[in-house]
Amino acid sequence: MEDLDTLVLRTALSWQAAGLSVVLVTVARTWGSSPRPPGSLMAINGRGETVGSVSGGCIEDDLIHCIREGGVRAVCATPTPAVLRYGISADEAHRFGLPCGGSVELVLEPVSGHSRLDELLLACQQRRSTERLLDLRTGRVALHEGRRDGVPRLDDRHLTTYLGPKARLIVIGAGDLSRYLCQMALSLGFEVIVCDPREEHGVSWSLDGVVLSREMPDDLIMRLQPDARTAVVALTHDPKLDDLALIDALQSDAFYVGAIGSRRNTAQRRERLREHFDLSEPALQALHGPAGLYIGSKTPAEIALSIMAEVVAAKNGIQSSASAQVAAGKSHHEVPGLEAVATAGCAV
């Protein structure tokens, strides 16, 4: 499953190739509460068809209505980009479904050869972060290497936005838990790769949209070189496989590295990585183990939800409190003396 930015760019290009007029709409700035953050994209064609979103739906409906009534020029009075603000007054905020009197400022850009959407899409697919500088007077675009998570900037002359690779999840181990985790990751727009070299595992394991690798985990991690948009989760319970992946992943730019297991196994893993593989304390502290947020989960699907919640939080720059993590949650809720039983199924 594609992430939303990639879907918008690809669809806009396909509409343009089909001879349709297309407007790319970008959320440039917001004030107060807003359903979509700055940088959100939507494309709308001359027939009023849309992909992506910039609000809860009411602004999209207004733009569609304008285009159906008067064509693309109804929302872009000139062939160059236009800036449009919704929700300035309380009445408008209510009309367009903007909560708490929020306002949103949009840049509407007629798509042309100057837009360079094909190059931007290619950069995203090649996992290159890109700064896009749109000249509001001419519609011309300059592309430069840039941060993936930069905040859009709008002034009288330019709109600067940042796009880059979709989030990627590398899962070590093909099993039931992996399947649920991958399904959730796909629905959230992640690129997903599962690695399991064991012949007896994954013979019938397949999931549409997931790449299955039979490489050794360390070979895969070294080949892919996890970047700041990559998470790595080890799920095999086999130290010979999990540790191989973790050693290199913890020394990469991955935004999240985690592994399942009991608190005892997690402590033993950290000790192995410290003594036998000379991993630094900062690298060991970056390991999420037991992986996930504590929600009292018991089934593979619930455990996958716990792990995916922690991965998404890390992706969004949210650091979970110690009390929300699995180890602390188990310590608080377990029956004394039953930790081995409670963790046998890796419930989180």
UniProtKB/TrEMBL annotation:
Residues spanning the signal sequence: none
Pfam families per UniProt: XdhC_C, XdhC_CoxI
Domain XdhC Rossmann: start-end pairs: 169-311
Domain of life: Bacteria
InterPro entries xref list: MoCofactor_Util/Proc, XdhC_CoxI, XdhC_Rossmann_dom
XdhC- CoxI domain ranges (all copies): 15-86
Protein name per the record: XdhC family protein
Taxonomic source organism: Polaromonas jejuensis
